[in-house]
Protein 1
Amino acid sequence: MKVLVTGGLGFIGSHTVVELQNEGFEVVIIDNLSNSSEEVLKGIVAITGKTPIFEKMDLREKPAVQNFFKKHHDIAGVIHFAASKAVGESVENPLLYYENNISSLVYILQELQQKPEANFIFSSSCTVYGQAEKMPITEEAPLQKALSPYGATKQMGEDIITDVAKVTNINAILLRYFNPVGAHPSAEIGELPIGVPQNLIPFITQTGIGMRAELAVYGDDYPTPDGTCIRDYIHVVDLAKAHVVALQRLINKKNATKVEIFNLGTGTGSSVLEVINTFEKVSGKKLPYKIVSRREGDITSAYANTDRANTVLGWKAQSTLEHSLSSAWKWEQKIRS
Ligand code: WQD
């Protein structure tokens, strides 16, 4: 069976391509290489021995999207990762985010609605919850007004898919990721942040390897046990496997409704200082850091209630924070060697 993975050379996309190939799917990747490189293809092949079809394409080009679906009319499902995803950049350049993240989605859905049946997996984010009232966060938690255009595009994306699924033959699963971290155990693929990493784990591993002088901890005056923010750090391979399970659920028509939503996390919250201590344990390195002022837009705490994913989807994250951090560290050492 042929599956389209948009953004398939990206961090989560490439790990999902590997797991799809492991399950016997034929994979077609669309990527515009704006935040990835063709080198990632080599990493995928090194792991699975199978070469996905790769089409360099920008999903903002509507004619290109139309031609793609004419050519690949036998697609059994689409996993849609391709999107801009830097929160800070989205505040500086909202139209880049609204055009890229929304137009691409609309053009793909316009093609899928013409097919007799279509299965669509959407890359969403716990960002849609904002600062949820209750921890752990369930899928019923009320959505707060997005704090950034990036978060707004994820909320709009979910609404667009829900409205379209109601009146077409598209079945969809929305996957709300918590914080994806780590790298494939082979260290053939992993996170490749461009420039100064915005996210905590790549900044920590780059500090550990000596690329950065020290980590700035954005605030230790939050209402948490040690004063630093709490997040749910989920291993990217666990996340990738959830996408395969979700796609198989739709292909096998096991979905209960036209649109289903699942939180993907470990269910455990870890503070920034706990992450630092765990990194020092797995790397044997002392991590230099300093406490600075809070980062605009950061929420205090977010970790998932994973009951629905565990019971309905039949998926559960396997990796601990320690395992995730050691895979991230192994990857950092590999790419800097
Ligand atoms: C985690 C914690 C920071 C860097 C974002 C997006 C989310 C998703 C994942 C796309 C926070 C602290 C960080 C640093 C720090 N992306 N931190 N020093 O903000 O929870 O989520 O990335 O889907 O949508 O919002 O992740 O890794 O940036 O921050 O102290 O140099 O680490 O304050 O508490 P975040 P993050």
Protein 2
Amino acid sequence: MCGIVGFSSRSTSAVRPLVSGLSRLEYRGYDSAGVALESTAGVRVFKQTGKVAELDKLLKRELPEEERAKYTLGIAHTRWATHGLPTVANAHPHLADGGRLALVHNGIIENYAALRDGLERRGVEFVSQTDTEVLAHLVAAFDRGDFLAAVCEALKRVEGTYGIAAISARHPGEMVVARKGSPLVIGIGEKDTVVASDVSAIVAYTRQVIYLKDGDVAMVTPDGVDIHSLDNSPVSREVQEVDWDIGAIEKGGYDHFMLKEIFEQPDALANTIRGRLDPGGGTAILSGLNLSPRELAAVRRLVIVGCGTSLHAGMVGKCLFESLADVPASPEQAAEFRYSNPIVGPDDWVIALSQSGETADTLAAVRESIRKGALVSALCNVVGSTIAREAGRGVYLHAGPEISVASTKAFTAQVTALLMTALKLGRTRRLSREAGDRLVREITGLPDLVRRVLAQSEAIARIAEKYASASDMFFIGRGILYPVALEGALKVKEVAYVHAEGYQAAELKHGPIALLSEKTPVVALLADIPGKEKTLGNVQECRARNAPVIAVATEGDETAAATDAMVVPKTCPELAPIVSAVALQLFAYHVARLRGCEIDQPRNLAKSVTVE
Ligand code: M6R
């Protein structure tokens, strides 16, 4: 949520790297953007509301090419508003020390009101409503000649979360960065050093990176990086190599990242599965879980925490754990979990699901579960992310970078990883080798099944055309397909701005059916799972109220009762959620496209939600 870029070089102008870095991070927030540039003459700031392209236009107008070379150090930010409206005044960087100090910040300073009062009493005047401006003035107040020490002193007084980068005309050539609860990565190039809240803004320059840890404060100069703890003692952090390149974060000929990521799913899932199936043993090899058969056998209950799409994957996981391993499982919305005094302990296995690995509520749930002594694992996509590191054990999805705000390939990869986890747990219990083998074979064929759904894209686009103007939609499913109904509705809401509700198929008649008419399409999940016949009955109920029904049905089994059908290949119940979800992703994408929506960056949203 919000993106930070910093650039320090001996000879290269920082302007272009900062702007293109911001464009790569725009998916993290996009209501305003700004840069601060340092030269011997001081710090200059440019800020604009709207997307990074607007900032770029401003820079083109106000900073001629010939002037740019002198700015070889700078910081930049793209914002997702928390404190204060998306205005130029509230956009980052924020200034202090009479415009000499500039600071950008991700996260939330929880005690900002008290800090602001104290600063105001000392005569500081604020120009924004943000918590970040408080931090800028606080650093300035502690600056007695040592920039890094000033940042440390300021941060010691702060409650909340931050990833920050700061420059000051009093300290030419120095950039100080720090993190607590909000990611920050430093890229070590041959000539330049790049800082960003996400490696995607770094890989254009280098694949050698240092992931800062909470409590780290670093001095970045063109000569290198010095990392310290908040009490200013040196710490050392390993330089790691990013294992993907720039191609992975470009559109590669697709109109939108969302479509590219939908189409990447066969490869993404092949990567999630690779090396993790054991056909001989009818089980999965998930070494990252680092759990012995004895520990697995001791698990009494599973709690799966996540938000949004990840929560929906967790709901599918519940069905898988209960049917394959006979272990009760409860999916929990991560924020609710944290504040509900959760009853978890050493017999419980808490699995945190998060594509980004940075979602604040999920991270808080992980911390609470660790405090209560539960066994905690994480299923994350972003390698080295906070949730993955704090959980200490888990399964990386290896789905590749997901840029579109709407999560697609992460969902199917999460369900696949959960299925392999359930298989492994099941094999320590009642699941026979034959049953395990059958699943191993099914999972191996999954990428091909998904390819067959993708081949339906044009047909799904034609169905989308019929319903793109609807203002309300319903999605119904039962059992393991109920979470897919929720996910289908979420996709349509967030990318197409259509009001959509996901329901258990049987629940519709307990109230919501009152809303059905010829204007409310109902998408019915009818892949072959136990209970399908009952859902068919619910379809009839919808048709009897004149609602058009779009079935997501198995090949050769398209129900005559439905008005239209999106066809998915025949598969086992465990994989039905995946193939059905892919069809719904395509449906949402095409509806959004036809409605002319901003598909990759829907209004009001941000990719990773690092605030509670
Ligand atoms: O990175 P995470 O998986 O923790 O993110 C959780 C949700 O914020 C995320 O899935 C969100 O619901 C997506 N925009 C859905 O497409």
